[in-house]
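User: Could you write out the 3D structure of this protein bound to adenosine monophosphate? I've included everything you need below.
Assistant: Certainly. Input first, then the structure.
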Amino acid sequence: MKSSNDPTLEQGLAVVRTVADLRRTVAAFRKAGRTVGLVPTMGALHEGHISLVKGALERGDIPVTSIFVNPTQFGPNEDFAAYPRDEQGDFDKLRDAGCRIVFAPSKDEMYPGQQLTTVTVTGITDGLCGPLRPGHFQGVATVVSKLLLMAMPDRAFFGEKDYQQLQVIKRMVRDLSMPFEIVGMPTVREADGLAMSSRNRYMNPTERAVATGLYRELNAVAKAVRAGASCTAATAEASKALLAGGFDKIEYLTVVDAESLEPLEKVSGPARVIAAVRLGRTRLIDNIAA
Ligand code: AMP
């Protein structure tokens, strides 16, 4: 980095709360010749989030992480109030990881006054989580649009863990000609295969032991359909095994085209095995390549 008289540029994590401060801080790095990588999160950070920060660092970007539990992407009966929040812990993790800017705005800073504008991505939101969480992807697309326009990064990093979300964001950026590269990063897992998630802490030890079965069954489906099995048959068998293993409900477990997210019966090109399941009060989502 070019040397500068601005201490923010030299080291450490700048905590910014307002859009004006975010723009000012990002602009200082840009002036010093740096590129910027945005990592949007809802906080309660774990290794999965940190891998996105590392993705930005590996590309030479100044990492900017946003922490905002976005109310508009939660349904009325969802866990907005209970969603884990640990701002100081998050800041410490980000500092350790080499993140340089954290944007942690208030709700009023994100949504000043009445909001009459939203972003809706159709088609790829018709299936999977779309109908199960009405309004969710509109909330996500709108808040991500706002964060992108606030930070104006070169790139933004999203996890494949939320695969439908990643496709929605990619499509939005393409359709609206937004000048940002969207980078999808692999899912970070616990030692037993469970995808890391801020919501994993909702599980009690018994549920946590059951939860490992999801990754195992996703792999069983992927192996079967790659070998030519019918997707319907393979997912039906896996759903049965999950319910027998202690899961309470399978919201969906299906094989879809990796880009359009259309359901497949036979796999011949890029595909994902993708699932949403319920275990006690926890809703788990996961997916892998088929
Ligand atoms: P969230 O805080 O849950 O909104 O997630 C913020 C970002 O982190 C999203 O792009 C997620 O896809 C990503 N993410 C969440 N969990 C993981 C994980 N286990 N591995 C990789 N990325 C993840």
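The chain is about 40% helix and 20% strand.
User: Perfect, thank you.
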